[in-house]
Amino acid sequence: MTSSEQTVGATARATAPAVAARGVSKRYGATVALDSAGISVRAGETHALVGRNGAGKSTLVSILTGLQRPDSGDVRFDGAPAPAPADRDAWRQRVACVYQKSTIIPTLTVAENLFLNRQAGRGPIDWRGLRRRAADLLSGYGVAVDPAALAGSLTVEQRQLVEIARALSFGARFIILDEPTAQLDAAAIERLFGRMRELQAAGVTFLFISHHLQEVYEVCQTVTVLRDARHVLTQPVETLSRDDLVAAMTGETVQTLGTGADRPPPPHPWCSTCAGCGWPATTTAST
Questions:
Q1: Antiparallel, parallel or unpaired: β 222-227 and 205-209
Q2: Alpha carbon distance 259, 262 (integer Å)
Q3: What pLDDT score does 33 carry?
Q4: Residue 246, CB half-sphere, CA atoms under 13 Å: how many?
Q5: CA-CA distance, 195 to 143, in Å (whole number)?
Q6: Which fold has domain 15-104+170-283?
Q7: DSSP state of 181
Q8: Is the terminal CB of the chain with fewer CB neighbours within 10 Å at N or C?
């Protein structure tokens, strides 16, 4: 390869999306979970992924994290092909998902969770050194948690931040947040969004999954909609009205979702859990 070809290749990688999945299909028996779907997330942005129940969000996340192999299509990180499915260390260096159900082990300390299976090389574990490394890591990302505390004593908010710090410690700069606000109060949500913006400024990219549209408009720059296992749209949030976003998710206009012309549209009409919403359970969003 000539030096000019190397320069062109390096430039292409530098301008490539943080992650791109194209033409991805996945079937489970007769069920089509994804049908030539895809997503492209720019480096340093917070990108929303939304859709109704069965849209394909969970399957796409499992493919983006290497837990499932697509039947067709490909995934690239910074322009380079995704690692082999068995190379879990390589996947951890590229992507991590903070799930709604925490993966933190409650009976271990924060430091032990942060460096699980990475405590030491040969010989006995230096527990004092481990706690010092954990404290430095947490401090570096502004997480005010005692590394010696049992993880089971942490709040939901603290567990999320520890999981994000753990992901970043592997070298991952693409973090998937799966319904991160589901168990947080308003103040904790604002703190989470503030931390996300700080990490964005430092070059971290987020994929944000939520059924709360107001959060998409508050913290995300771009949104991708999946419906019935297919990609429907990817568009800057600021150019997309809420009615158009709901229509993309449901395949219907907001007006046709109600039972009366004078019925005001709720904040997220596909959600059956909203107090006073009263919309059919068959349109409940999930990941």
A1: unpaired
A2: 9
A3: 97
A4: 22
A5: 9
A6: Rossmann fold (3.40.50)
A7: T
A8: N
